[in-house]
User: Fold this.
Amino acid sequence: MALAFHGATQMGYQWKWDRVPRHLWRVIDGEWVWGPLLKGLWVTLDLAWKSTFLALVLGTLAAWMRQAPSHMGRAIAWCYVELIRNTPLLVQILVCYFILAPTLDLGREVTGVVCLALYEGAFAAEIIRGALQAVPKGQSEAALSLGMSPRNTQQDIIWPQALPLMLPPLAGVLVNLVKHSAIVSVIAIFDLTTQARTIIADTFMAFEIWLTTAALYLCITLGLSWGVGLLEKRFQRPKW
Assistant:
């Protein structure tokens, strides 16, 4: 922030902070009207929660397949994780938008959600798999020897112990998902970043708008981190 102010001063930039609120909200005829930045923020939040839900589902499924007895299941999950993790998200979005979306008749928003979910789901899969493997194998063996079914063993023994281990790294994945959502602007989704670029093109208020946009993203990510922190305390692993 200080560097931005210093650089603008050196350039002789004239700050126009008084014009920023109109791009957040306006009062017209006594009614509050959202400005383009808050409209873009809503689109970003909508993309984020949908992608988060789908990423967690895909990550859990892929983690389970990585440990499945089926060689085919393990191979499919391994190919998915390695392919997604080792190719750029931008390339994945462009491939999906220009090749898969027309074939499957997908809209821009759906394409953005699917790409974000696939990308972050691959990282979530390894986090979940690592947390499940960190639970001592003797726990499941003891539960099965006592007559518990495999399903109840996973539900009542393995997952309650693995959940506190996976929450901190999953928080990082969710924060990255919000930040990576800015990339969907390349396929003309009117998210926060796209709206900011449009405003800057019209007003040339680059410093004010980008700093405001960064602050809005920061509010989202800090809120996510705070929420996951509460979950960590709720599911904190007991110390024996």
